[in-house]
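Input record (one chain):
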Amino acid sequence: MLIRQVSTAAYRHRLNVLQVMVRGALIGLIHQHGLTAYSSADDDGRSVTLIGTDVPSIQNSGGMLHDTWGYAFEVAFGFLFLASEVGWVWPLPILLLFRRSSSMENSGAIS
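The corresponding structure, as predicted from the sequence alone:
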């Protein structure tokens, strides 16, 4: 239990570091562009609006990408451990999963 808590804390720390780095880089880019861009009377501070709305959504997409490759490794290691325990039967869960998903798609449960 302690190992899981430590690894979860390390994972969340790395994810937070990634989000802070992405947020800082994006705000810096927008700020630099705002300083060097041509300003007209009808500009109304559009670059500041980008900082408030677009940066958090881009920041969250980095976290989702980080989670996606982590889940891919988790599934790969899970099947590796399953193969070491049950031998040649390990592809059976994958086949059942694809068969189930295709039957749900054909029945209209997934649209």
